[in-house]
């Protein structure tokens, strides 16, 4: 049971895949009406927990409307006052039958929004994954009116008007307070542009057989949703009782400048929180005392500086070269004057995380040709602005973040982590992890620096264990977000500065592990 729920929690589907999976269930003999009844019953049970007794139900022409009508009928039978709004004249057969029966029970059905009496909440069953063209005219107008209402709106499957795959608004879309996603997570739930419409998201599992999911998605689905179980299986815990510090990885961080000293500290604190065995931090010479005072256990490498206070070149300790490190993370706070350093680490064959100015310098060097020459594995961690600078010829991530990150990884051969409310990580061959939960508290200067150090530290510890790099990166993203969520719970969304975040990294993980 645990297993099935764990697997279902990771699955993410497109509208086409959902239709194929649904097709297999129907072909195997499940009557369409029975499935609708089952799903409607599950939604009703959740709706009844919401409270209120006067309900407006928005009913569309397809099976999303059919689901809504089952809920309307069940609520009516349980003593709720129910009104239906449906401005359509033609319905799919099953939906039409449900509407007829609902009306026979005395549930009023209105075609005009003004006729709907005041209700405690609204159920949105206008369109689900069958929406195929933009919503226009009077229906778009009505949706915009519903959005101005104060009452909570509960959407069935997906807020009506949201594209199931890209998350874009097709003409007009319901802004839901809560959305009950049916059966399997749809891609739109992880596209930043849809999040304000989806509200609180909840999966209603209606027992889709695992074999049908596998038959359509394959044994290694392309897009997966990160889960706690997955993250815990990747973390380097428990440690072997006989390990020594060099077996727990050696991370080299290259970061900071006189102008951006704090970025170096935050990156290093992120690296430290990963538990990495040995931490070396290369910074401009003048930052060395500052870093030593914050991280007494790390080896701080002071490097010659440019006139502007950037690292001029790497000056590693004697008998050390880049091959001494299990992973390198480079970029936060470097400024654009540290080009030589980025060239040097690009030429090494070490696992490399590039972030911030490291990415901006890579963009100047020419992202794709430079990466194609690299011997080792590379992780890029851009936010949207850096992404566009790195990949100016690829589709704009604002339109479809998942497709954009997939295209970037394929074109560059790097593992690309695109930051956002729903951070997505793609492997060059198209495998994607999505981090499903985060907090706007993390939209704050320095929080990305912490992530870079953390991912570097995890990679240094686990890279040699055969764990796929994208799993390690996704675990870092998950851990970082969970620390932000816990910190925001305890300190509000205003209380999660990047330094505080580094302290919550340990706190959150000890809660999971114990
Ligand atoms: N996948 C599954 O296994 C299940 C799906 N169910 C429900 O079925 C839904 C999908 O049902 P459908 O395929 O009937 O699709 P929808 O109910 O999403 O809507 C399709 C209908 O809307 C019309 N339409 C599409 N775009 C329009 C537009 N812009 N303006 C006006 N009309 C438009 C279409 O002509 C069609 O009649 C799901 O979202 C879910 O709610 C559930 O009943 C049970 C199980
Ligand atoms: K809907």
Automatic annotation (TrEMBL):
Cofactor: Mg(2+); K(+)
Residues that bind (6S)-NADPHX: 63-67, 128-134, 157, 333, 383, 449
GO biological process per UniProt: metabolite repair; nicotinamide nucleotide metabolic process
Binding site for AMP: 419-423, 448
Physiological role: Catalyzes the epimerization of the S- and R-forms of NAD(P)HX, a damaged form of NAD(P)H that is a result of enzymatic or heat-dependent hydration. This is a prerequisite for the S-specific NAD(P)H-hydrate dehydratase to allow the repair of both epimers of NAD(P)HX. Catalyzes the dehydration of the S-form of NAD(P)HX at the expense of ADP, which is converted to AMP. Together with NAD(P)HX epimerase, which catalyzes the epimerization of the S- and R-forms, the enzyme allows the repair of both epimers of NAD(P)HX, a damaged form of NAD(P)H that is a result of enzymatic or heat-dependent hydration.
Assembly description: Homotetramer.
Family, as annotated: In the N-terminal section; belongs to the NnrE/AIBP family.
Record's protein name: Bifunctional NAD(P)H-hydrate repair enzyme
Taxonomic source organism: Anabaenopsis elenkinii CCIBt3563
Organism placement in taxonomy: Bacteria, Bacillati, Cyanobacteriota, Cyanophyceae, Nostocales
């Amino acid at each position: 049971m645990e297993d099935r729920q764990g697997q279902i929690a990771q699955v993410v589907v497109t509208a086409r895949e959902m239709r194929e999976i649904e097709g297999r269930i129907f072909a195997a003999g499940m009557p369409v009406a029975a499935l609708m009844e089952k799903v409607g019953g599950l939604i009703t049970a959740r709706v009844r927990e919401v409270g209120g007794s006067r309900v407006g139900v928005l009913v569309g022409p397809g099976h999303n409307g059919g689901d809504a009508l089952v809920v309307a009928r069940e609520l009516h039978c349980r003593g709720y006052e129910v009104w239906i709004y449906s401005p359509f004249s033609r319905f799919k057969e099953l939906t039409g039958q449900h509407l007829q029966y609902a009306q026979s029970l005395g549930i009023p059905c209105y075609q005009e929004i003004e006729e709907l009496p005041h209700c405690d909440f609204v159920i949105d069953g206008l369109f689900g994954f069958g929406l195929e063209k933009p919503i226009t005219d009077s229906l778009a107008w009505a949706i915009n009116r519903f959005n101005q209402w104060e009452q909570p709106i509960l959407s069935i499957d997906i807020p009506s008007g949201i594209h199931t795959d890209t998350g874009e608004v097709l003409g007009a879309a319901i802004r839901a307070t809560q959305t009950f996603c049916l059966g399997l997570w749809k891609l739109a739930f992880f596209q930043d542009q849809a999040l304000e419409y989806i509200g609180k998201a909840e999966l209603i599992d209606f027992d889709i057989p695992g074999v049908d999911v596998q038959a359509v998605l394959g044994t290694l689905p392309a897009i997966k949703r990160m889960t706690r179980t997955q993250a815990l299986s990747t973390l380097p815990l428990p440690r072997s009782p006989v390990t020594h510090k060099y077996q727990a990885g050696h991370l080299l961080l290259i970061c900071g400048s006189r102008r951006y000293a704090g970025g170096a500290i935050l990156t290093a604190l992120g690296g430290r929180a990963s538990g990495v065995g040995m931490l070396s931090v290369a910074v401009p010479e003048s930052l060395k005392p500052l870093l030593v005072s914050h991280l007494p256990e790390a080896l701080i490498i002071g490097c010659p500086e440019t006139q502007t206070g950037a690292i001029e070149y790497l000056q590693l300790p004697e008998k050390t070269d880049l091959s001494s490190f299990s992973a390198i993370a480079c970029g936060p706070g470097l400024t654009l004057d540290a080009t030589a350093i980025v060239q040097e680490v690009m030429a090494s064959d070490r696992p490399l995380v590039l972030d911030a100015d490291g990415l901006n310098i890579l963009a100047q060097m020419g992202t794709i040709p430079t990466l194609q020459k690299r011997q080792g594995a590379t992780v890029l961690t851009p936010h949207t602005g850096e992404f566009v600078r790195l990949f100016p010829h690829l589709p704009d991530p604002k339109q479809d973040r998942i497709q954009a990150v997939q295209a970037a990884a394929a074109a560059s051969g790097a593992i690309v982590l695109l930051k956002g409310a729903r951070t997505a990580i793609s492997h060059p061959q198209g495998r994607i992890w999505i981090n499903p939960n985060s907090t706007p508290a993390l939209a704050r200067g320095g929080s990305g620096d912490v992530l870079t150090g953390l991912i570097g530290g995890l990679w240094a510890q686990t890279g040699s264990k055969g764990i796929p790099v994208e799993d390690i990166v996704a675990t870092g993203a998950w851990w970082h977000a969970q620390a932000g969520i816990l910190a925001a719970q305890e300190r509000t969304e205003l209380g999660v500065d990047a330094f505080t975040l580094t302290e919550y990294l340990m706190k959150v993980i000890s809660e999971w592990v114990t």
